[in-house]
Structure prediction request, 422 residues.
Amino acid sequence: MGNALGWLQSVEEKAWHASKEGDLETLKAIAGTTPSALEWRESDHGKTPLIMACTNGHIACVQWLYESNVDMYGRDYRGNTPLHHACQRGQPAVVSFLLGLPDLTPYVVNAKGMGPLDAARRAFRLSKEDGDDDDTLASITRCIELLEQRCALVHGALYERVNNFVSSVVGFSALQSWETKYAIVLRTSSPMFLELALFPTMSTDPMMLERTTPVPSSTVLVLVTANHLPLVKRDASAWSLSDKSFGFNLTGMIPRDQVANTGPLQTFQYAAIDQDGLDMWSAFFSVAASRLPDPRVTADRQFNTHDLGRTGSLFVGNVPMTQTSDGDDDDDDDDDDDDGVEIARPLSLAPRRPSPPPPPTSDTGEEGSSTECIVCFDAPVAAVCVPCGHNVLCMACAASILESTCPVCRRRVREVVKLFRI
Prediction:
């Protein structure tokens, strides 16, 4: 029966299953007669032969497909690239190979706005919750380490100000306590933000810090635009019962994977371990904006990487997406089905124009008013991002993100239009 079913398969399906099973000889034979089969997508999830080879760790097939010039960013219908899938399934050999390719960017994002590192962290958390064996956790951890080695800019120790039981009950921030954290600053897919990832540690000795998990306990997207000073030193406050010396504030926002929606810019309080630590963090963030580009990636792939690998209408990540439930997959490797995530499906019609943003409120005295620029918080809103239509920036900040991404929806900004209010 198996052979009979094999006769009914198309050439494209045979190539897809050969990649899934690691059958390199069959792949080569098919490529000799039907090279287009190497880019075929199955109908349920839009996964390519390369995605299947990466998912199942068939490194020889992955290498051969790369040499055959397949699309290394070929996405599934959820916007996941082959690198996303390799991270989700804990395939460190594949991740190492992909990261070693010239000009392949690790900052590409899927339809949920998650990069490969986000996908690997999520896979680790889910595997931990499911009670997977140590080998599986170790494989995913290695994928995380490889991505951190590529994306990290600086690391060190600092104190994070956190709520405790008393401060939560009383609602008085001066009663908050401090925790020693291992910190890593990493590049992101945005030209405006760096990620500050904080990890718990067993030791309180800043010289002997070793994180206890590969997944951070908290992350903050730190704003690092050229016209904004991200770090402001802070003197110890007499109003705080437990303030630290060598304190500093960072301006940023909490990522979407920690809250329902990315919130407005906030001020986050931290403290260095000593004066040398404060000098180090201050020196780094004073030049952070100039260190955003990855020297191993060309300028056109530094940011706006949601466009990479898009083929026709197979993946349209910027249109309104409908929540759907997928059918059973024969390879049972879709990690995104368990949380009701909104996904992008293939479209045969032109994408609808995004709805315009809500009009500005008249209450200009309220914090977070829509008439105030969400980046600098100084100048009034005076520009509209095109084509997304978000009206949240002053002209100075809008000019700084031109040809970049919108700070609200991360959609690429083609131009900005100045508003004249009557």
